[in-house]
Amino acid sequence: MASYPPLLGDKDGHYRVRIVGNSGTGKSTTASALAKILGVPYLSLDTFFWQPGWKETPADEMQAKFSAALDACKNGWVVDGNYERRIGPILQASVTDIIWLDPPLALYLPRIILRTVLGILRLEPPCSPGCPETFSKAFFSKDSIIWWCITDHGLVRRRNTEKMKIVGLGVGSDTSRQIMRRIGGWGSTLRRWMQDVTDMIATKRTKTD
């Protein structure tokens, strides 16, 4: 069985990583931590999409701002979020690694409920500045992040499973772009992968010192 490094990167040793998965799977936490390990900027797509007061940013405006942010990240970046129709084409040509977080719903549903409650109590920062969680939005709205998490679980899994068939590491039909890996399980696989990335970067930095 082929062995792959925890991140592929490009020929110059730069990493441009996209973290995808359903709401609540840990994309933001993982992306922020990964960016620190790699020493590159972390870009949250939610902050480009949501304006204060939960106002949606028009597609062309979001794309322009996001493209400008990517252009400023000369040595790599970590992006978290889906927004496939708006942002997917912009990332497609430059991303070196796609990480699909796919833990069981039973693991991350309680986590997103807790995060939402903490957000309502202002003990957790909002997904985008000026977009606080409210009790009514969280529990009695069609836009509830909790309801979204439940109803999108299967949809996101099917969509990313299909994408794996094309660009999955070691399995994708596009042999020139096998850049996507799935990380599932109850947490140990993700922790082990993060440690592997940390060790790989530490080794590279030691060699260049």
- Helix fraction, binned, reads 40-55%
Strand content: 5-15%
The shape, in one word, is globular
Q: What is the C-alpha radius of gyration, as a whole number of Å? A: 17 Å
DSSP helical segment count = 8
Please give the number of β-strands.
Answer: 7
Trace the largest sheet across and list its strands. Answer: 2-5-1-6-7
- What separation lies between the terminal Cα atoms? 33 Å
Characterization of this structure:
The protein is 50% helix and 13% strand. It contains 8 helices and 7 strands, in the order βαβαββαβαβαααβα. β3 (50-51) and β4 (55-56) form a beta hairpin. The radius of gyration is 17 Å and the shape is globular. The two termini are 33 Å apart.
Write a brief structural summary:
The chain contains eight helices and seven strands, in the order E-H-E-H-E-E-H-E-H-E-H-H-H-E-H. With about 210 residues, it is of the alpha/beta class.
Please outline the helices and strands.
Blueprint (H helix, E strand, L loop, with lengths): L14 E7 L5 H12 L3 E3 H5 E2 L3 E2 L2 H13 L4 E5 L3 H9 L4 E5 L3 H16 L14 H6 L4 H23 L12 E4 L4 H21 L1
Parallel strand pairs: 1-5, 1-6, 2-5, 6-7
Antiparallel strand pairs: 3-4
Helix pairs in contact: 5-7
Question: Keyphrases for this structure?
Answer:
13% strand, two-stranded antiparallel sheet, 209 residues, 5-stranded parallel sheet, single chain, alpha/beta
